[in-house]
Amino acid sequence: MDIIPAPSPNFNERPGPPDILVLHYTGMESGEAAIARLRDPEAKVSSHYVVEEDGRIFTLVAEERRAWHAGVSFWKGERDINGRSIGIEIVNPGHEFGYRPFPEPQIEAVIALVGDIRTRWSIPDARIIAHSDLAPERKQDPGELFPWKRLAEAGHGLWFDPAPERIGALGAPLSPGDEGLGVIVLRSGLHRLGYGVQPGGAYDEETRLTVEAFQRHWRPDRVDGIADGETRARLVGLLQLASVESVTGVLD
């Protein structure tokens, strides 16, 4: 795998080894513009890698260093995500400049890069996440067009396709304004998976945005912030997978 050096000055020391991998899209009109910004000391942003649409991979910050890609964020109780993570920026104009599918050479390169990174660091599948998972209120990347299922099938990340009977057993959709046990269970499940939303409470705007972020990652054919039966069935299944992975990791 050929990796092109494009060093950025925007980094500092880590508090410890990385155990989270965050995927982004660049959200700019070209890859060149994105790389220039990530290398600009005035911008104070960076990532470890940038993957171009033609599959070229650029390295900007050494994995041992703390790049500045996540911003204000939260996952599984952690707030200093930059200190715990490796960030991969995937060139795509994003929702603001004409969001489009990710080309095949780019996806192949991302899968290869993720696999390579995981040979050096202990990064569980449940900690391979989207920028939008870390900050649902302000981020959408890499978005619903990124093939998370394919990445998981290659061995990187979680994915769960629920059986129809599991979907039907969960009843009517939950949506903004709802209250009660179903909403409490939903918020608790999202929090257990890693999101910042706290257990308890009503189906408020924070809940809607969190459900939308979950859907961008794990139910990309429906991104509307409404927790229908399939969305909730996927959440339950993912929690089971994450729990099994956690136990297996302890045993290993």
Task: Write up what this structure looks like.
With 252 residues, this protein is of the alpha/beta class. It is 38% helix and 12% strand. It contains 10 helices and 8 strands. A hairpin with a 5-residue loop joins strand 4 (49-51) and strand 5. Helix 8 crosses helix 10.
Helix content bin: 25-40%
Strand content: 5-15%
- What is the straight-line distance between the termini? 29 Å
Basic shape: globular
Rg from C-alpha positions? 18 Å
Poorly predicted regions are: none
Largest sheet: 6 strands, mixed
Q: Helix and strand succession?
A: EEEHEEEHEHHEHHHHHH
Overall pLDDT confidence: 95
Structural class: alpha/beta
H/I helix tally: 10
* Largest sheet, spatial ordering of strands: 1-5-4-7-3-8
How many β-strand stretches?
8
